[in-house]
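Input/output pair, single chain:
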Amino acid sequence: MIHSYLSCCVVLEASALECLAQEVFPLLCLFLLRGLVFDTMYGNLLKVDSHGNILLCAHGFTFLKGSEIQTYYPNRFIQRDNTDRFYILNTLFNLAETYLYACLVDFFSSCTRYINKLKGYRHGDLFMSFRSMFQDVRDAMDYVHDTGSLKEKTLKNLEKYVIKDPRLPLLLSRMKEVAKVFLATNSDYSYTEAIMTYLFDFPHGPKPGTPKRPWRSFFDLVVVDTRKPLFFAEGTVLRQVDTTTGKLRIGTYTGDLQHGTIYSGGSSDIVCELLGVKGKDILYVGDHIFGDILKSKKKQGWKTYLVVPELAKELQVWSEKNYLFEELKTLDVFLADLYKDLDSGSTELPDISAIQNRIKKLTHCMDMGYGKMGSLLRCGSRQTLFASQLMRYADLYASSCLNLLYYPFSYLFRAPPVLMPHESTMDLLPLDFPVSEKSVANHVLRLTDAKRKIVEQDTDSNDED
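Output:
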């Protein structure tokens, strides 16, 4: 739906808009994912790791090969902190926006009326840069949200766009029995009221046989119009909402928490004050990696729970393809084994081309299981930028907040202990050899004959391919 609105809002020549509407593009679900980076200079969609190394590059719907990527990025690396040029598309809303970038670039690249240039397209005396195209789409995105047209369309067909789950009232009722529960949303009161009323519209209460309850009874505090991420910094004026008219009451609210009252604006500091808690006492659940998770963690030190809806598919594909990852790990050990008897004085170079080709083939096979752009979280054995942000700022993550139903609220969530690279080699050292006399890197575990045969068979079959 949002893609259709964006397409209509982007300013294009009438004939170009008509051609664009008639063009057949790949399905969104097969091609794109979150976490990509749009290069406003060259119009490329990039999949990068946490350091800015390019894992994948697409121009429209055309995937570029290694030599083509180096034409644009000789070092296969980007300065992702250069936000004037590189725009990170991390949110669920960005999916439609990302898809439209790909559609526009693909359309103009293949249109005979336009001449392809390095930084845009020329048609007679007119030049359209990728940066101006990007800004048009961004402006259209802001227009769709600011005018409220997207919300109006959503409210007209809630059954189509909003997923109801009877487990939600049950989870919140259980949480409210042992803790304080609050809702902080950027949406206004009228939209929040409509969505929440629909989500809690069941013939019974949290459990069958219990009386039906209004949605506000499940929360100790409700705050709308929070304007996150500003909410986690200085915030805005806290005001009360007149639930009869939906309008804000005059003046700044400075009193204690009033149950059943809807508030507007405020800040994370005010929420802590009203609830009588410290930042570390809060587990904050959100689906926006920047506006919800990163800012609440960095500014307030809140415990964070990131909702990643794509995780359901990621887990399904991983269960089917994880044997490929195990083979990648085996190849890494085999590579180390080839170098075990060499040092800085060695002139002999082992031939690792077959192993490198096999690694590329395995990585590609894994990625294709997720879609044309691969996994949201990895590319072979390397984590994506989105995955690194998730690991850094989210204390917990899951496909839904409803996963909390299946844990006692006293459960102690702990990250599994992870060895650093130098620590993971210690158990590989011979017991009769001092660490200080030889580099740890030269003491890697030898492959068993069985593993060696498996790898040799795989590399042989790859040569035949």
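The chain has 17 helices and 17 strands. Residues 42 and 119 are 5 Å apart (CA to CA).
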